[in-house]
Design a protein that fits this description.
The complex is a heterodimer of chains A (613) and B (338).
Chain A (H helix, E strand, L loop, with lengths): L5 E4 L1 E9 L4 H14 L3 E7 L14 E9 L10 E6 L2 H7 L3 E10 L5 H6 L7 H4 L7 E5 L1 H8 L7 H6 L1 H12 L5 H10 L4 H20 L6 E4 L9 E6 H16 L3 E5 L6 H8 L7 E4 L3 H13 L3 E6 L1 H17 L3 E7 L16 H6 L8 E4 L5 H16 L2 E7 H5 L1 E5 L46 E3 L14 H17 L9 E3 L5 E6 L3 H13 L4 E6 L1 E3 L5 H6 L3 E6 L4 H9 L5 E4 L8 H11 L1
Parallel strand pairs in A: 1-8, 2-5, 5-6, 6-7, 10-11, 10-12, 12-13, 13-15, 14-15, 19-20, 19-22, 22-23
Antiparallel strand pairs in A: 2-4, 3-4, 9-16, 14-21, 18-20
Helix pairs in contact in A: 1-7, 5-7, 7-9, 8-9, 10-11, 10-15, 12-13, 18-21
Chain B lengths: L26 H15 L6 E5 L14 E4 L5 H11 L4 E7 H7 L1 H10 L4 E6 L34 H7 L4 E6 L3 H13 L4 E6 L11 H4 L4 H4 E4 L6 E2 L5 E6 L2 E6 L21 H7 L8 E8 L5 H15 L5 H6 L4 E2 L1
Parallel strand pairs in B: 1-2, 1-3, 3-4, 4-6, 5-6, 7-11
Antiparallel strand pairs in B: 5-11, 8-9, 9-10
Helix pairs in contact in B: 1-6, 2-10, 3-4
Classes of the chains: A alpha/beta (613), B alpha/beta (338).
Chain lengths: 613, 338
């Protein structure tokens, strides 16, 4: 073992970076999962290019995976890294700015040849000086490529496959750096490569050699130790990404409602994983159509909804645009459907793999006519499960389309998830027409909630014709009567407004007696909470209200906002939620906006809040 | 499921809504035949779903008792696909027009045919946009003057049969609004066919494209200009029943029985069940005046339907998988105590 010092840390941020073919996503996932098993809180954020394989060694091809782990409650994948792993000069160049002072850089010496530096656009032969890093961070050069080659000497593998294993060497080294045994990583590898024994053996060998290499390093590098988390409620946990959690939330809702789950969807980054996850679940009877286009994604779902299924479609911004007309049909036909929008950078094709909150106004208003739909937003990878479940519950009980907003940040990112049991989840009672109601009209509704009764083909006595034309309030026949149209428009609005009675009230976190109320919605919760907590620790009076229910707003929204002298709305767009809030709760709102395809950083929020306090 | 012991009549499939097409519109005849066919097929109205998009013909679901969904322009095929996959026990009809089906809904059309979803599609082809008052459609003949082509269209039209065959269609039939007997027979076959049944119904728009099919429909000459194909029967046509089709090399040729030594035995026999669609396509694309236009069931071959395949795959996986419930799914993930 090394004789170096071991430092205890509350939390640490590690960033793995390399070419998109270097296996950084896998390495990062393995490290975060094994840390979670050892009792840490985790939050991860993969950051990859939209090109599948950009030219090797170029800036455009750099793929990163950041993991934040710790003993204390963690809300974000962290701002700057304590440890950066750079598999080549391009990875170093892209990520150099995001390393803390005094941080550690582990890099593959073998990939820092002159030609590699040129590809990454370095002008001198010392990239560290060129990036002003020499003084500020600790360098751990390791010839990862050649060490991997010698590690696998005698293995019957081609040169390419051998080199591809160097990510495991890096993982071993990181495990050493954090005093984590490699057993858990071995266990994960055994599961992943159960059917490929030779690859498994090679990976384990390289991983172990990487770990031992660290131990034999006689460098003045500190190793770290992170205690088990003490903030997590007891129970069984896994780590889950937002897209999988969303898919599973839909499945749970269908089981709870006693309905078949149907998904009509079309591949689109960064939402495709939802469809893929559901396509796997034939064992649970999930029906998935990979449709011919985005429009067919939602219109097949509407057909399934008409036929009595829990119907959903998953997409991202450009796909939501294509689905607008059909969402309008769902509003008009008063059919339940869940539309998941995993937001990405826009407009148009925009930044397909990057994160933004720029679809909010599209979700709220992007349709012809007076077309109210429920809009809700998830905050974390893990709570995407809850909000997908609630989106389904609201759709089925209130007979309305529900748009669930998540984004690339939480869709691809992971967090700890306390495993639920179906029995513990809330009941879902679809607003179905009941026996004894035979002969009711297509517009017949529950007079309190205004939810239309759902009568399902195949059942005698409920024959009806639905559609996108305006219908008579009483008879359900098509109608262009002026007063009737007004009444129907008002009824559909009242139905959505009523939902404010069944959603939870807005919660204020942080110092409730604050001078400044920070407002966010959806996925910015983690960064805002961390910044607010840090300021509270410094004695600053700041509070946070983060919205998950957006249309309708929680009932106590106005009351809470009016309590505070100063309110700032922070979002990853140019002020869409602020605009919406001004229309619902008029008043003065400050704004903090960022549209860079990246999440907030805690430090930028903290320093901004300090300037306005 | 309903048994055939319950006898339905046309009336059982009439809704309480008054039909509001223009007087003389060809759609009336098709609606009437469709209701007759539905009664004869013996599927209860509540097990029937009629789905449409937008256009004159797409109003049809309002006129049929049972479950109906009048959706949005072009999307009927996708909606119908969702209905059938969600509940394969339903009998699903899709009503569409030449604009709805082949312009705005072209993508959904070819993909529903490709998948072979078990729906019965009535494609009302009047070669014009009626509801928007007279613009040319994807089936309007080249050069035709309409409100949006005041100097004649410069576009080549689609031939619905060619699209259907190109997409791997398993059923294609054609009917003429005024020819009730063959319409009835063809729609019965379409209803019985498992998979996507495309029935091109040549209908007359009295207001914006009157007489588009009059060359075929005129009573006196109709049977010289159309041929009603029936599986297993010789391809004989003509007012006097003396004309027939033979092969001449790779091409079809019209001959007269009794002339040049031609006898009934020389005439081709129609094989709608033949998997190879080459001859069926040639028949479907015949045009006047050189050839008769083919009506009836042109292609009707067996293949697994999409909805059936979806259900079969689910059953297959369910039999193998250890995950039977949601809680099993949760148990299956990598987990640890904290």
């Amino acid at each position: 073992m090394s004789s170096n010092k071991t430092t205890e840390l509350e939390n640490v941020v590690v960033r793995f970076s390399g070419d998109s073919g270097d296996g950084m996503q896998l390495t990062g996932t393995l490290f975060s999962n094994l840390s979670a098993i050892l009792g840490n809180e985790i939050s991860t954020f993969p950051d990859f290019p939209s090109e599948i394989r950009a030219p090797q060694g170029t800036l455009g091809g750099v793929s990163g995976f950041q993991v934040h782990l710790g003993a204390a409650k963690i809300y974000t994948p962290g701002d700057d890294a304590d440890v950066l792993v750079a598999m080549n000069p391009a990875a170093l160049k892209v990520n150099a700015k995001g390393v803390k002072k005094g941080g550690v850089l582990i890099f593959d010496e073998d990939s820092f040849r002159k030609s590699d530096m040129e590809k990454a656009g370095f002008k001198t032969e010392n990239p560290f000086e060129e990036l002003n890093l020499s003084e500020t961070i600790q360098l751990i050069p390791a010839p990862l490529s050649s060490l991997t080659q010698s590690s696998l000497e005698g293995f019957e593998m081609d040169a390419k496959s051998i080199l591809r294993s160097k990510n495991m060497f890096a993982l071993g080294l990181i495990c050493w750096l954090f005093n984590r045994p490699v057993d858990q990583a071995v266990h994960f590898l055994e599961n992943k490569f159960a059917k490929k024994k030779s690859i498994l053996e090679a990976n384990i060998k390289v991983l172990t050699d990487g770990y031992n290499y660290g131990g034999n390093l006689h460098l003045s590098v500190n190793t770290y130790k992170i205690e088990k988390s003490h903030d997590v409620p007891q129970g069984k946990y896994t780590s889950i990404n937002g897209n999988k959690a969303t898919a599973w939330g839909l499945i749970a809702a269908s089981k709870k409602a006693g309905l078949e789950l149907f998904l009509g969807s079309y591949p689109i980054t960064p939402a495709t994983d939802i469809m893929q996850e559901l396509a796997l679940r034939k064992d649970l009877g999930v029906k998935v159509i990979q449709a011919e286009d985005e429009i067919a994604g939602i219109t097949t779902a509407l057909g399934a909804s008409f036929a009595g299924a829990l119907a959903a479609t998953s997409t991202s911004g450009p796909g939501l645009a294509l689905k607008s007309e059909a969402i309008g049909l769902a509003v008009m036909a008063e059919l339940p459907v869940v539309i998941v929008d995993v937001m990405r950078g826009g407009p148009s094709t925009g930044l397909p793999t990057k994160t933004e909150q720029t679809d909010l106004l599209q979700a709220l208003y992007g349709r012809n006519g007076e077309s109210p739909a429920v809009v809700i937003a998830a905050s974390t990878p893990a709570d995407s499960f809850h909000y997908a479940f609630m989106a389904s519950k609201i759709a089925l009980e209130h007979m309305t389309p529900v748009i669930l907003l998540t984004d690339a940040f939480i869709g691809n990112g992971t967090s700890l998830w306390k495993l639920p049991k179906l029995a513990e989840l809330p009941e879902i009672k679809p607003n179905k027409a009941q026996p004894g109601m035979e002969g009711l009209n297509v517009t017949a509704r529950n007079e309190e909630t205004k939810a239309r009764y759902w009568s399902i083909p195949g059942i005698e006595g409920f024959n009806h014709r639905n559609g996108g034309l305006e219908k008579d309030y009483t008879t359900g026949a098509i109608s262009t009567d002026p007063m009737n149209h007004q009444k129907m428009v008002d009824t559909r609005q009242a139905k959505v407004d009523y939902i404010s009675n069944v959603i939870p009230e807005l919660v204020v976190e942080g110092d409730a007696s604050a001078d400044l109320l920070v407002i966010g919605w959806g996925t910015t919760h983690g960064h805002l909470m961390t910044a607010v907590n840090a300021l509270n620790k410094k004695g600053k009076k700041v509070a946070l209200a983060n919205f998950n229910y957006i249309n309708p707003l929680p009932k106590n929204t106005e009351e809470i906002i009016k309590r505070y002298k100063k309110v700032i709305v922070c979002e990853l767009n140019n002020g869409q939620f602020a605009t919406y809030l001004r229309s619902k709760v008029p008043g003065e709102y400050l704004q903090y906006n960022k549209v860079q395809g990246q999440p907030f950083t805690v430090s930028e929020l903290e320093s901004h809040f300090e300037t306005i306090l | 499921m309903e048994t055939k012991s319950i006898q339905y009549t046309l009336k059982d499939f009439k809704s309480d809504q008054a039909v509001r097409w223009c007087p003389g519109c060809g759609d009336y005849a098709v609606l009437n035949t469709m209701q007759k066919v539905m009664a004869e097929m013996g599927v209860a109205p509540h097990n029937t779903a009629v789905i449409s998009g937008i256009g004159c013909s797409s109003r049809l679901p309002y006129y049929i008792s049972g479950y109906g969904f009048h959706s949005i322009h072009g999307r009927g095929a996708a909606v119908a696909t969702g209905v059938k996959v969600a509940n394969p026990a339903l009998t699903v009809w899709q009503i569409t027009g030449d604009g709805d089906c082949l312009a705005i809904g072209g993508n959904h059309f070819i993909h529903s045919v490709r998948r072979n979803i078990d729906i019965n599609v009535l494609l009302f082809n009047n070669q014009i946009y009626g509801l928007t008052k007279g613009q040319y459609s994807p089936t309007t003949k080249k050069g035709y003057v309409t409100k949006s082509s005041p100097f004649g269209t410069v576009e080549r039209p689609f031939r619905p049969a060619e699209l259907t065959f190109g997409a791997g269609g398993t059923f294609f039939g054609r009917v003429l609004d005024v020819d009730l007997k063959s319409s009835h027979k063809t729609m019965i076959a379409a209803a019985k066919h498992k998979g996507t049944s495309i029935v091109e119904t040549l209908v007359n728009c009295v207001i914006f494209n009157d007489g588009a099919h009059s060359f075929l429909s005129e009573k006196a000459t109709r049977y010289d200009r159309v041929i009603i194909l029936e599986h297993g029967k010789p391809m004989i046509f003509g007012v006097n029943g003396d004309k027939g089709l033979v092969l001449d090399g790779f091409n079809l040729k019209v001959v007269t029985i009794g002339e040049n030594g031609i006898t009934e035995n020389d005439i081709l026999v129609h094989d709608a069940k033949c998997q190879d669609a080459t001859l069926q396509l040639k028949l479907a694309l015949m045009e006047g005046p050189e050839f008769p236009v083919a009506l009836g069931v042109i292609r009707d071959v067996e293949a697994e339907s999409y909805d059936e395949a979806v259900v079969n795959q689910i059953h297959e996986i369910q039999a193998k998988s250890k995950i039977k419930t949601f809680d099993d799914l949760i148990d299956s993930c990598e987990q640890w105590e904290m």
